[in-house]
Write a structure and sequence with these properties.
Layout: H1 2-19, E1 26-32, E2 35-41, H2 50-68, H3 76-81, E3 89-90, H4 93-108, E4 116-117, E5 127-130, E6 133-136, E7 142-143, H5 149-163, E8 169-173, E9 176-180, H6 197-203, E10 208-215, E11 221-226, H7 229-239, H8 244-253, E12 257-263, E13 268-272
Antiparallel strand pairs: 1-2, 2-8, 3-6, 4-7, 5-6, 8-9, 9-10, 10-11, 11-12, 12-13
Helix pairs in contact: 2-5, 4-7, 5-7
Length: about 280
């Protein structure tokens, strides 16, 4: 009798397992100016269609590129760069946040990305930001944050997804990435250009992470896991300017989670920092 009950329960478990559908992820992708994006997400409402998410992401990225690119003469960043006075400049919400991101990356990279350009060699801070106002320490100072726009865009899309109630996603913009509760490997037609992106992500032991990416002049791939995609992107670009040995020493000194894949002819070797292992 017990044997029959056990078989019945086993059969019921197999039946329920077979009837349970795997989560169906949606993919919203496209391009807004120079920003190519892909958002893989698990919808929580019926109106979170791929078309609607594409429209929202495209609108957001178009706005960010127009306002934050130094190459756009009408952008908010250009307004800062053309401000040649010592008096305070009122900042928009987006611009203030972006400048604070740039300041944090400048500190993290030990001023190695040349995000601030100015004629003088004064040791004073580049800018002061307080009460939604900016003061330049040197009127000639220019913000050159364009390399951070892709990572910052990823972070902003993540905010948008959270506002939509979406908690399972993978966001990619120009090879910068952010992932939350996402373990569908690999994504079909992943737009990320990294040859080792799948291997790297499979080793990341975190439910939520930001992953920066850069390629060195010697074609080594540098991956950095950090708090935000903008910061991770900046760190990856900085480390990519160094020889592999120096980059690993720097990563260990700063306790950065870094994975470097060298495609040298003699050996395609992977190097992980202590914090990545």
């Amino acid at each position: 009798m017990l044997h029959k009950k056990w078989l019945a329960l086993l059969g019921l478990a197999i039946f329920l397992s077979a009837c349970t559908k795997a989560p169906e992820y949606s993919i919203a992708q496209g391009r807004a100016g120079e920003l190519q994006f892909q958002v893989v997400y698990l919808p929580v409402t019926s109106n979170q269609t791929e078309r609607r998410v594409v429209e929202r992401v495209h609108s957001l990225l178009t706005h960010l590129e127009q306002q934050l690119s130094s190459e756009n003469a009408e952008s908010e960043v250009a307004r800062v760069n053309n401000w040649a006075q010592s008096s305070a400049l009122v900042l928009t919400r987006d611009l203030e946040e972006f400048i604070r991101v740039g300041m944090s990356v400048d500190m993290l990279t030990e001023h190695g990305l040349s995000l601030f350009q100015k004629a003088s060699q004064s040791p004073l801070p580049h800018v002061f930001v307080e009460n939604h106002r900016l003061i330049k320490t040197d009127p000639s100072l220019k913000l050159t944050f364009d390399a951070l726009i892709s990572g910052y865009a990823v972070d902003r899309i993540a905010v948008m997804m959270r506002q939509m109630g979406v908690v399972n996603y993978q966001i990619t913009v120009n090879n910068q990435r952010r992932s939350k509760r996402f373990r569908v490997m690999p994504v079909v037609n992943d737009i990320h250009a990294g040859q080792h992106i799948v291997d790297v992500e499979q080793e990341i032991n975190a439910r939520s992470y930001a992953l920066g990416y850069a390629r060195s002049p010697n074609n080594a791939e540098v991956y950095v896991v950090y708090n935000s995609a903008a910061q991770a992107s900046g760190l990856a670009q900085w480390l990519a300017t160094m020889p592999v040995a120096e980059a690993l020493i720097t990563a260990d000194r700063l306790n950065l989670a870094v994975s470097i894949h060298s495609d040298a002819k003699d050996s395609g070797t992977r190097y992980n920092s202590a914090a990545f292992n």
